[in-house]
C-alpha cells in the first residue's frame, strides 16, 4: 500500500470533531439512569436519549438518530 492509497483521516478524528451520540434503553430506571450518568461524564460521549421499553426505543431512535444504541436484551 502506498501513501496515496491510505485514508487521509484517522479513526480518532471523528471523536475529536463531535461526540458519539448514544441511546440508553433499559426497563429498570436505576440501571438506565446510572449508565446514562456514567456515559455523560465520559469525554466524547453524549446521551441523546433514554427509553424504558422497545417501542419507546424505536420511536426515540428515529427521532434522535443516535450513533450507538445500548439496549437491555431482556425487557418489555
Reconstruct the topology from this structure.
Layout: H1 11-17, E1 20-25, H2 29-41, E2 45-51, H3 54-64, E3 68-71
Parallel strand pairs: 1-2, 1-3
Describe this structure as you would to a colleague.
With 76 residues, the chain is α/β, with parallel strands linked by helices. It has a domain at 26-65. The protein is 41% helix and 22% strand. It contains three helices and three strands, in the order αβαβαβ. It has helices spanning 11-17, 29-41, 54-64, and strands at residues 20-25, 45-51, 68-71. A three-stranded parallel sheet has the order 2-1-3, sandwiched between helices. The radius of gyration is 16 Å and the shape is elongated. The termini are far apart. The model has no long low-confidence stretch (mean pLDDT 89).
Give the terminus-to-terminus CA distance.
50 Å
What percent strand?
15-25%
What is the N-to-C order of secondary-structure elements (H for helix, E for strand)? HEHEHE
- Give the uncertain stretches in residue-range form: none
Number of strands: 3
Radius of gyration: 16 Å
Class of secondary structure makeup: alpha/beta
For the biggest sheet, the summary is: 3 strands, parallel
Shape type: elongated
Structure annotation, total helices:
3
* Relative helix content: 40-55%
Mean pLDDT: 89
Name the strands of the widest sheet in spatial order.
2-1-3
